[in-house]
Amino acid sequence: MLKKITLALPKTINLTKMIDLNTLVEETGADSGLVFSIDGVLVESVNLEYDGNVAAMIGMILKMSLEMSEDLNNGDLKQLMIKNDDGIVVANKNQDDQCVALLSKDLSKMGLLLRKMDTIFNN
């Protein structure tokens, strides 16, 4: 007797319909960008080597930060910023756990990246 196996696929990402990633990267001056699920499943990337690995890592950071925020009763995580010596990563997620991240090696772009991502996710 054969057993029926059902695979659980990630939620369909519809951010690519509302966000032109190439335009977003160009308008903000970011070096690269990606669209992915919070589970790290890459949907689209621009100017990024090892994009699948980056999507998986940022997805894991977002998921862990979301759980920490919930444990601390700080509400739902909306945005994550990672700043290091040589750059910045700004990642946002929507209520369906669909994510967009922008990466830049120019720290002076931090304000623009944060503002643009807020505009996209709050409209």
Written description of the protein model:
With 123 residues, this protein is of the alpha+beta class. It is 37% helix and 25% strand. The chain has a 5-stranded antiparallel beta sheet with strand order 2-1-5-4-3, with helices on both faces.
Briefly note the structural class of the backbone: alpha+beta
Shape: globular
| Unreliable stretches covering 5 or more consecutive residues | 1-13
Supply Rg: 15 Å
Distance between the termini: 52 Å
Mean pLDDT score: 87
Approximately how much helix is present in the residues?
25-40%
Number of strands: 5
Q: Main beta sheet, described?
A: 5 strands, antiparallel
Biggest sheet, spatial arrangement of strands = 2-1-5-4-3
What percentage of the residues does DSSP assign to strands (E)?
25-35%
Oligomer: single chain
- Total of helices: 4
What string gives the helices and strands in order? Answer: HHEEHEEEH
Which helices and strands occur, and which strands form pairs?
Layout: H1 15-18, H2 21-28, E1 32-37, E2 42-46, H3 51-71, E3 79-84, E4 87-93, E5 98-104, H4 110-122
Antiparallel strand pairs: 1-2, 1-5, 3-4, 4-5
Give me a quick take on this structure.
The chain is of the alpha+beta class and 123 residues long. The protein has 4 helices and 5 strands, in the order H-H-E-E-H-E-E-E-H.
Looking at this protein, list some descriptive labels:
single chain; 123 residues; alpha+beta; 5 strands; 37% helix; 25% strand; globular; disordered N terminus
